[in-house]
Amino acid sequence: MRRVEHVMGFPVSLRVDDEDVPAEAGDAVFAWLREVDERFSPFKAGSEVSRLDRGELSPDGLSADLTEVLHLCEEYRIATGGAFDVRLPGRGLDPCAVVKGWSVQRAAELLTAAGARRFCLNAGGDVVVSGGPWRVGVRHPEHADKLCTVLALTDGAVATSACYERGDHIIDGRTGRPATGLLGVTVVAPTLTEADSVATAAFAMGPEGIDWAAAREGCEVYAVDAGRRVLRSRGFPVSGT
Protein backbone atom coordinates (compact mmCIF):
# COMPACT_ATOMS: atom_id res chain seq x y z
CA MET A 1 0.00 0.00 0.00
CA ARG A 2 1.31 3.45 -0.93
CA ARG A 3 -0.67 6.62 -0.23
CA VAL A 4 0.03 10.33 0.15
CA GLU A 5 -2.46 12.97 1.25
CA HIS A 6 -2.26 16.54 2.51
CA VAL A 7 -3.82 16.63 5.99
CA MET A 8 -3.51 19.04 8.93
CA GLY A 9 -1.39 21.39 6.85
CA PHE A 10 1.36 18.96 5.82
CA PRO A 11 1.88 15.92 3.58
CA VAL A 12 1.27 12.51 5.14
CA SER A 13 2.70 9.47 3.39
CA LEU A 14 1.88 5.87 4.20
CA ARG A 15 3.77 2.78 3.09
CA VAL A 16 2.60 -0.68 4.15
CA ASP A 17 4.66 -3.66 2.95
CA ASP A 18 2.25 -6.37 4.12
CA GLU A 19 0.24 -7.75 1.20
CA ASP A 20 -2.68 -8.93 3.34
CA VAL A 21 -3.57 -5.54 4.88
CA PRO A 22 -6.85 -4.26 3.38
CA ALA A 23 -7.07 -0.88 1.68
CA GLU A 24 -9.68 0.07 4.27
CA ALA A 25 -6.86 0.30 6.82
CA GLY A 26 -5.36 3.17 4.85
CA ASP A 27 -8.79 4.77 4.54
CA ALA A 28 -9.15 4.61 8.32
CA VAL A 29 -5.77 6.29 8.86
CA PHE A 30 -6.56 9.31 6.71
CA ALA A 31 -10.16 9.55 7.91
CA TRP A 32 -8.89 9.72 11.49
CA LEU A 33 -6.34 12.43 10.67
CA ARG A 34 -9.00 14.50 8.88
CA GLU A 35 -11.25 14.09 11.91
CA VAL A 36 -8.45 15.29 14.19
CA ASP A 37 -7.96 18.37 12.02
CA GLU A 38 -11.63 19.26 12.30
CA ARG A 39 -11.80 18.65 16.05
CA PHE A 40 -8.49 20.01 17.31
CA SER A 41 -7.30 22.73 14.94
CA PRO A 42 -7.09 26.15 16.63
CA PHE A 43 -7.46 27.63 13.15
CA LYS A 44 -10.98 26.26 12.61
CA ALA A 45 -13.69 28.27 14.38
CA GLY A 46 -15.93 25.26 14.93
CA SER A 47 -13.31 22.93 16.40
CA GLU A 48 -13.55 21.73 19.96
CA VAL A 49 -10.28 23.51 20.76
CA SER A 50 -11.56 26.85 19.41
CA ARG A 51 -14.88 26.49 21.23
CA LEU A 52 -13.07 25.76 24.50
CA ASP A 53 -10.80 28.74 23.98
CA ARG A 54 -13.83 31.01 23.48
CA GLY A 55 -15.38 29.72 26.71
CA GLU A 56 -18.23 27.90 24.96
CA LEU A 57 -17.28 24.58 26.57
CA SER A 58 -16.63 23.78 30.19
CA PRO A 59 -13.64 21.60 31.20
CA ASP A 60 -16.12 18.99 32.41
CA GLY A 61 -17.81 18.83 29.01
CA LEU A 62 -14.78 18.00 26.87
CA SER A 63 -14.31 14.85 24.84
CA ALA A 64 -12.09 12.16 26.30
CA ASP A 65 -9.59 12.75 23.49
CA LEU A 66 -9.21 16.47 24.14
CA THR A 67 -9.02 15.83 27.87
CA GLU A 68 -6.14 13.42 27.22
CA VAL A 69 -4.34 15.93 24.97
CA LEU A 70 -4.67 18.76 27.49
CA HIS A 71 -3.40 16.48 30.25
CA LEU A 72 -0.31 15.74 28.17
CA CYS A 73 0.18 19.45 27.50
CA GLU A 74 0.09 20.17 31.22
CA GLU A 75 2.55 17.34 31.94
CA TYR A 76 5.09 18.89 29.57
CA ARG A 77 4.49 22.41 30.86
CA ILE A 78 5.33 21.25 34.38
CA ALA A 79 8.25 19.08 33.27
CA THR A 80 9.89 22.00 31.39
CA GLY A 81 9.32 24.63 34.04
CA GLY A 82 6.91 26.46 31.74
CA ALA A 83 9.09 26.54 28.60
CA PHE A 84 6.53 24.35 26.82
CA ASP A 85 3.15 26.03 27.15
CA VAL A 86 0.09 25.79 24.90
CA ARG A 87 -1.61 28.74 26.62
CA LEU A 88 0.76 31.62 25.99
CA PRO A 89 -0.31 35.13 27.06
CA GLY A 90 -1.92 37.03 24.22
CA ARG A 91 -2.38 33.91 22.14
CA GLY A 92 -5.20 31.42 21.83
CA LEU A 93 -5.09 27.85 23.05
CA ASP A 94 -2.85 25.92 20.64
CA PRO A 95 -2.16 22.25 21.50
CA CYS A 96 -0.83 21.40 18.01
CA ALA A 97 2.61 20.51 19.36
CA VAL A 98 1.03 17.54 21.15
CA VAL A 99 -1.88 16.84 18.80
CA LYS A 100 0.29 16.05 15.78
CA GLY A 101 2.35 13.28 17.34
CA TRP A 102 -0.55 11.97 19.42
CA SER A 103 -2.86 11.67 16.42
CA VAL A 104 -0.30 10.09 14.09
CA GLN A 105 0.59 7.56 16.79
CA ARG A 106 -3.11 6.71 17.04
CA ALA A 107 -3.15 6.25 13.26
CA ALA A 108 -0.21 3.86 13.51
CA GLU A 109 -2.10 1.88 16.11
CA LEU A 110 -5.02 1.59 13.67
CA LEU A 111 -2.62 0.00 11.18
CA THR A 112 -1.32 -2.45 13.76
CA ALA A 113 -4.87 -3.39 14.72
CA ALA A 114 -5.60 -4.07 11.03
CA GLY A 115 -2.72 -6.54 10.88
CA ALA A 116 0.07 -4.36 9.49
CA ARG A 117 3.48 -5.53 10.67
CA ARG A 118 5.88 -3.60 8.43
CA PHE A 119 4.95 0.00 7.71
CA CYS A 120 6.19 3.59 7.67
CA LEU A 121 3.88 6.52 8.40
CA ASN A 122 5.49 9.90 7.72
CA ALA A 123 3.65 13.05 8.78
CA GLY A 124 5.49 16.14 7.66
CA GLY A 125 8.86 14.60 8.52
CA ASP A 126 7.83 13.02 11.81
CA VAL A 127 7.82 9.25 11.41
CA VAL A 128 6.42 6.09 12.98
CA VAL A 129 7.83 2.78 11.75
CA SER A 130 7.23 -0.89 12.42
CA GLY A 131 8.94 -4.09 11.33
CA GLY A 132 12.22 -2.57 10.22
CA PRO A 133 14.99 -2.06 9.73
CA TRP A 134 14.13 1.37 8.34
CA ARG A 135 16.55 4.19 7.57
CA VAL A 136 15.26 7.66 8.39
CA GLY A 137 17.04 10.79 7.23
CA VAL A 138 17.12 13.97 9.32
CA ARG A 139 17.08 17.16 7.29
CA HIS A 140 19.97 19.57 7.74
CA PRO A 141 18.69 22.59 9.72
CA GLU A 142 20.19 25.09 7.27
CA HIS A 143 20.34 23.29 3.90
CA ALA A 144 17.09 21.84 2.59
CA ASP A 145 18.86 19.60 0.08
CA LYS A 146 21.11 17.92 2.65
CA LEU A 147 20.81 15.50 5.55
CA CYS A 148 22.70 15.98 8.79
CA THR A 149 22.34 12.34 9.84
CA VAL A 150 20.59 9.08 9.00
CA LEU A 151 19.28 6.82 11.73
CA ALA A 152 18.36 3.16 11.79
CA LEU A 153 15.05 2.24 13.38
CA THR A 154 13.17 -1.05 13.64
CA ASP A 155 10.09 -0.12 15.69
CA GLY A 156 9.39 3.31 17.12
CA ALA A 157 9.18 6.96 16.20
CA VAL A 158 11.35 9.94 15.36
CA ALA A 159 10.48 13.64 15.35
CA THR A 160 12.41 16.83 14.66
CA SER A 161 11.77 20.38 15.84
CA ALA A 162 13.46 23.24 14.01
CA CYS A 163 12.72 26.62 12.44
CA TYR A 164 13.45 25.85 8.80
CA GLU A 165 9.80 25.40 7.74
CA ARG A 166 7.79 27.84 9.88
CA GLY A 167 10.36 30.33 11.15
CA ASP A 168 10.50 31.25 14.82
CA HIS A 169 7.21 29.53 15.70
CA ILE A 170 8.39 27.76 18.86
CA ILE A 171 8.03 30.06 21.84
CA ASP A 172 9.79 29.72 25.18
CA GLY A 173 6.85 30.05 27.56
CA ARG A 174 9.15 31.33 30.30
CA THR A 175 10.04 34.46 28.33
CA GLY A 176 7.25 34.75 25.75
CA ARG A 177 9.89 35.09 23.04
CA PRO A 178 11.02 32.73 20.27
CA ALA A 179 13.24 29.95 21.56
CA THR A 180 16.95 30.42 20.95
CA GLY A 181 20.13 28.41 21.26
CA LEU A 182 19.27 25.46 19.01
CA LEU A 183 18.95 24.99 15.25
CA GLY A 184 17.30 21.59 15.46
CA VAL A 185 16.40 18.78 17.85
CA THR A 186 15.59 15.22 16.80
CA VAL A 187 14.15 12.76 19.30
CA VAL A 188 13.72 9.00 18.95
CA ALA A 189 11.15 7.44 21.29
CA PRO A 190 8.86 4.40 21.47
CA THR A 191 5.88 6.49 20.33
CA LEU A 192 5.42 9.60 18.21
CA THR A 193 3.28 11.07 20.97
CA GLU A 194 6.42 11.33 23.06
CA ALA A 195 9.00 11.91 20.33
CA ASP A 196 7.18 14.92 18.87
CA SER A 197 6.24 16.50 22.20
CA VAL A 198 9.71 16.03 23.68
CA ALA A 199 11.41 17.44 20.57
CA THR A 200 9.26 20.58 20.68
CA ALA A 201 9.64 20.95 24.44
CA ALA A 202 13.42 20.53 24.23
CA PHE A 203 13.66 23.13 21.46
CA ALA A 204 11.61 25.57 23.56
CA MET A 205 14.00 25.07 26.48
CA GLY A 206 17.08 25.88 24.40
CA PRO A 207 20.46 24.20 25.05
CA GLU A 208 19.36 22.88 28.45
CA GLY A 209 16.63 20.96 26.65
CA ILE A 210 19.14 18.51 25.18
CA ASP A 211 20.07 16.92 28.51
CA TRP A 212 16.46 17.17 29.67
CA ALA A 213 15.23 15.21 26.66
CA ALA A 214 18.04 12.64 26.82
CA ALA A 215 17.22 11.97 30.48
CA ARG A 216 13.66 10.94 29.67
CA GLU A 217 13.15 7.19 29.68
CA GLY A 218 13.26 5.65 26.23
CA CYS A 219 14.36 8.87 24.48
CA GLU A 220 17.50 9.39 22.40
CA VAL A 221 18.49 12.82 21.11
CA TYR A 222 20.40 14.39 18.22
CA ALA A 223 20.75 18.19 18.28
CA VAL A 224 22.51 21.00 16.47
CA ASP A 225 23.04 24.13 18.57
CA ALA A 226 23.28 27.74 17.42
CA GLY A 227 27.06 27.38 17.24
CA ARG A 228 26.54 24.48 14.80
CA ARG A 229 27.87 21.92 17.22
CA VAL A 230 26.35 18.45 16.97
CA LEU A 231 25.35 16.81 20.24
CA ARG A 232 23.78 13.40 20.58
CA SER A 233 22.95 10.94 23.29
CA ARG A 234 25.00 7.77 23.49
CA GLY A 235 22.19 5.47 22.31
CA PHE A 236 21.02 7.53 19.34
CA PRO A 237 20.63 4.94 16.55
CA VAL A 238 22.84 6.36 13.79
CA SER A 239 22.80 4.19 10.67
CA GLY A 240 26.08 2.53 9.85
CA THR A 241 25.57 2.81 6.10
Task: Detail the topology: elements first, then pairings.
Elements: E1 2-7, E2 10-16, H1 23-40, H2 48-53, H3 64-79, H4 96-113, E3 119-123, E4 126-130, E5 134-139, E6 147-153, E7 156-162, E8 171-172, E9 177-178, E10 182-189, H5 192-205, H6 208-214, E11 220-225, E12 230-232
Antiparallel strand pairs: 1-2, 2-3, 3-4, 4-7, 5-6, 7-10, 8-9, 10-11, 11-12
Helix pairs in contact: 1-4, 4-5, 5-6
Notes on the structure:
The chain is 33% helix and 27% strand. Helix 5 (192-205) runs antiparallel to helix 6. The relative contact order is 0.13. It has helices spanning 23-40, 48-53, 64-79, 96-113, 192-205, 208-214; strands spanning 2-7, 10-16, 119-123, 126-130, 134-139, 147-153, 156-162, 171-172, 177-178, 182-189, 220-225, 230-232. The two termini are 26 Å apart. The protein is built from 6 helices and 12 strands. A hairpin with a 7-residue loop joins strand 5 (134-139) and strand 6. It is of the alpha+beta class and 241 residues long. It has a single domain (2-232), classed as ApbE-like domains (T-fold), CATH 3.10.520.10. An 8-stranded antiparallel beta sheet has the order 1-2-3-4-7-10-11-12. It has a two-stranded antiparallel ribbon with strand order 5-6.
